[in-house]
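Could you help me review a protein record that somebody else here produced? Do not assume that whoever made the record got everything right. The record follows directly below this note.
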Amino acid sequence: MVAASAVSELAQYSSCEVADALIKLRLPHGGYLPGLELYSPQPMAGATSVCGPAFTVRMVWQSEEHAPRLSKHFMDVAERDSIMLISAPSSARSAVWGGLMTARAQSVGVRGVVIDGRCRDLAEHRDAGFPVFARGHSVLGQSPFTRPSEVQVPLVLADPTVPLDAQGQPVFPPVTVHPGDILLGDVDGVVCVPQPLVGQVVEIARHGRHVDELCRQDLRAGRGMQETLAVRRGT
């Protein structure tokens, strides 16, 4: 488990800064969960930023009789200060998150929700000021289309719109999110930081922000882009 102080440090940085750090640590996807956009409290706008450990939920088709079943509603076992990460079947056109779930999430101290799928009841989330990131939205509810099957299991997130290469693999690699990995979301998107890398990411992001500020000062003073990057970044 990542210490709360480390999560607070990471929360000071943007999704872009964190992704840059993960690329430097040789994660080919930079932790980026592509195709997920901010729907609430403001659609793709504002200063919303959430950061916290992932509490994962896997949804399956209602017709999948042999998939595991939960004994309790997943919102009744959600952990305080977590970010819900819900993965739905990629072709589902129904929502897996609605206004009542936001009400429950806020009552138990969940910081936000990231949905590899669709949400609905947008006005309710926005009125509540609750952070919602999703792949899309719908007018349809969860039932009778999908159901929750498992919680706190690893989830593999892949953008269904990404084409395949000659070997049949997605040209942008999928991201595996483990329970407790740190999710950070803002207007630019959502990134996942594996637990063992949080400390290194903070250090790299801190240095990167300092370098970027020096670049910004140089550019505002009239220095050319190529020269600035060569001097400050060595590129």
